[in-house]
Recover the amino acids of this structure.
């Protein structure tokens, strides 16, 4: 049964399986385990990045396409929900309409980019997507009457997802369930369902063709597959899932702006997570997202404790200051890439194979 749910793509490593199971359970029980505002924001961001990175891995890890326009589709999903909710008022109709328009816009735009650009060499396609993403970010920043400009848009969620909504008068297992918790569990259910769908896609005959194109596109073309069509479909599917991830982030934040969805820093984060987790492995998106988001949000707190422990030591106290957390974050990522060139998932699977 589990084998069919995971589309016959088992972790193939005991430690990886245990890690994935622990993440699945912890994320499901997060409102009970981490009731604080910061900790809930961290786990919600982990959910969003799992879906966002998995959708990008479909493009990069399974098809071999380097694109810098992924955050554009991410932003389209967020802006679609935000603009519809801002103009039409809070309600499920506005959310669904905004999501539907955003999905349609992303599909059409990704289809155009695929049809007109995927025939060029990889580096030129990457530059084209970078130019399109930069133009879209500039457009979103300048159309202040429509998108809120640099300030972004704040909006209200449907009543059930509003923080003031409390379906129960008493606490459940020590937690007073409100609209915030319901929003999180909605995100959890959507991300889990779409992640399993992505697993099914990459392990289907369509996914096998994408991997063949990644390994040798000339050979795939020679045996009869229209590689441009498959690459375009991969681009469209990747954009579709990224759009939904953006909509989920907007629902959680009740806000969207250029910095939260369209920033090039987010694109760099996606690339880092793919490399750390392992390209061409959907499970790498889960492991990488957890490691990256936790390090990004709690490394500074850890450095505060370390700095307090070595207070008075001239060199260490200066090096371990919390102000240098970005430096240490970079060092950790360099070490992880050096010691895990195939990502954490690839390394764990290789160790399992060596043990056998």
């Amino acid at each position: 049964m589990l084998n069919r749910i995971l589309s016959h793509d088992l972790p193939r490593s005991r430690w990886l399986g245990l890690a994935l199971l622990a993440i699945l359970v912890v994320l499901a029980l997060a409102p009970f385990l981490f009731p604080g505002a910061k900790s809930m924001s961290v786990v919600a961001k982990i959910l969003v990045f799992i879906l966002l990175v998995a959708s990008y891995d479909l493009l990069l890890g399974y098809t071999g396409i380097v694109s810098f326009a992924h955050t554009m589709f991410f932003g389209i999903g967020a802006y679609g929900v935000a603009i519809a909710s801002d103009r039409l008022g809070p309600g499920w109709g506005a959310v669904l309409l905004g999501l539907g328009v955003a999905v349609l816009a992303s599909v059409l735009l990704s289809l155009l980019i695929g049809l007109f650009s995927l025939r060029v060499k990889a580096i030129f396609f990457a530059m084209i997507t970078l130019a399109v993403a930069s133009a879209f970010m500039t457009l979103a920043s300048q159309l202040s009457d429509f998108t809120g400009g640099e300030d972004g848009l704040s909006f209200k969620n449907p009543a059930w997802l509003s923080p003031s909504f409390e379906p129960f008068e008493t606490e459940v297992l020590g937690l007073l369930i409100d609209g915030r918790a319901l929003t999180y569990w909605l995100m959890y259910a959507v991300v889990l369902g779409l992640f399993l769908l992505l697993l099914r896609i990459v392990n289907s005959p369509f996914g096998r063709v994408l991997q063949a194109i990644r390994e040798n596109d000339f050979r795939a073309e020679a045996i009869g597959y229209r590689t441009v069509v498959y690459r375009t479909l991969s681009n469209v599917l990747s954009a579709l899932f990224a759009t939904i991830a953006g909509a989920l982030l907007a629902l959680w934040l009740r806000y969207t702006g250029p910095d939260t969805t369209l920033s090039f820093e987010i694109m760099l984060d996606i690339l880092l997570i793919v490399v750390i987790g392992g390209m061409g492995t959907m499970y790498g998106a889960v492991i990488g997202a957890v490691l990256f988001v936790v390090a990004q949000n709690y490394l500074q707190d850890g450095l505060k404790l370390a700095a307090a422990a070595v207070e008075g030591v001239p060199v260490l106290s200066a090096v371990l200051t919390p102000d240098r957390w970005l430096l240490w974050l970079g060092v950790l990522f360099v070490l992880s890439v050096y010691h895990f060139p195939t990502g954490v998932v690839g390394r764990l699977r290789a160790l399992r194979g060596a043990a056998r």
About this structure: The longest strand covers residues 153-154. Strands lie at 153-154, 255-256. The mean pLDDT is 88.
